[in-house]
Amino acid sequence: MAETGTPQGKADKAAPDGVTFLSGTAFETAAWQDPNRTAPPPPENTFELGLVMAGAVSAGAYTAGVIDFIVEALDTWDRERAAGNPRAPTHQVRVPVMSGTSAGGMTTAILAAVAHRDFPHVRMADSDAAATGNPLFDAWVNQIDWAPLVRLHEANRSGPPSSILNGDVLDGIVTGVLDDAGTRPSRPRVWLGEVTRVILTATNLRGTPYWQDIKGVANDGYGMNNGRDHQTFALHPPASDDRALPDEIALHAGAVGSHLETWAALGQWALATGAFPVALPPRLLRHRPGDRDHRIVVADPETPGHYIAIVPGTTRSDSTTDQTFLAVDGGVLNNEPLNLARRVLAGGDGRNPRQGHRANRATLLIDPFPAFEASPAPKPGDRALWRIAGALLATWKGSARFNAEDLLLAMHAEVYSRFQVAPVRGDTNTPRGPLACGVMGGFGGFLHRAYRRHDYLLGRRNAQRMLRQHLVLPAANPLFKRGGAPGGVEEALRDHRADHADGDYYPIIPIIPGTSVDAPEPLPDWPAVNLVDVDTVSRRFADRADAVLGRTLATMAIDGVGRFFLSILASTVVKRKVRKEVRAYLAKALGDWHLRDLP
């Protein structure tokens, strides 16, 4: 799969009425950012749901399990309703947008590839197979592992190493998912609608420049650079018309494969959003000229009803034509891309109705690591240089992710426009967290398949409970009034009442009695202890570190004698130190997570 190569877009079109571009460039996408734009309401008896998948490193296995169950539940409901099952409610759900960051972005891309293709679902009884045919399970549980990540040499790459780990296995997984999807039987999914926006984030290491003129002695100004970036793909079902906006990349489900330019672009964005900085290699991406011209649109204070689109550039008249950039993990700056999905649902700066009796749209955030621990008061040792550097990086990241709107919504308990799935086990076996992949800051899932299998199955279990008890609306919501009639909820919903003390609530996505999704998803056993051979892992990681350091030294401007002695030092002292430290860290981390016997 080519690393770059963004498909050519359609020609720019005239600006919408009332929108002025500072550079004179214009096209219709600016209408999506109109501050006063409000999306039309969904069709009668239809609820719109945006899927949002947060960053998770190896715990993307959990997100994949949640998505697997949700897809199965929606497919089952559509099938039973079409067959006239009297226990299948007649309201409908549409998913017009899915957004993802990091591991969540990679899962979003996998779902996009098979969105209109048939694939089996993986339950506990099926989860020991080396190949299940389920792209979510196979990519996240069966195919990714620590061994290929520490291979000594990358294929088809020269020059200094760009990451501690070897990213070749990820290229293979992405290519395999796309090519496999193209061979699967077609299965158009009504609940995805006529077009689904697929949004992947990335951290743009070049950034998007903006210039602000300020009058003064030099008549100069100052520039700003925005590293938050994303790409929107417009996913169409088979044999449908192209409805992509000018800054979007059209994906047609009728033909999927890594050899197709648009799907290859999706694959590269998936690899970029999952490129954990330093650990995994950055990816080279490209925007088309004009793709970002509409992203900041503000009200024109001089002309009510008009808006100004602030175009990127180092000056007001300079919009950079070379759009290539290196990108890393989107979660560095935006780990929960709720706002990107919300803007598609609500339109511009519109708002989705939040009260239970009015809600008709919502985002569903799947977040394997929602917890946040505040930093403790400083201690004397925190003044050390390396501690200050670490604290500064954490502060930069936290500030970049800060969102005042999320805080405002969190103050209101009765908000039905945002829902969340997060991991819960319901026992006390895991004092550090419910996910086995949570060990080592989320990287631990790469150490053993059993960890990833556990989290995938827990994701299915949590999704089932979420749909039954928490992704619900009060009975007064018009969604449940058949044909809009005022006389109570339709009869088919009587079997689906959620157990709430403050009144009757009914699920947005019902689980149809007697179907496969109705069978209880069992709690998976916590993985056995001592599955990971810490000696082998630490030795192989030290070998990889030695190779990375050696190749780095080989490309540095050091004379031959100096390079020789540095190489000897790296291959003896440094390698031995790395192996010792990695082994000690692994042993303690696994022990703290009840995944290894402590001495």
UniProtKB/TrEMBL annotation:
GO terms of molecular function: hydrolase activity
Keyword Acetylation: no
BP GO annotations: lipid catabolic process
Residues the record marks as active site: S102 (nucleophile), D329 (proton acceptor)
Sequence ranges assigned to domain PNPLA in this UniProt record: 51-342
Coiled-coil annotated spans: none
Residue numbers covered by motif DGA/G: 329-331
Protein name listed in UniProt: PNPLA domain-containing protein
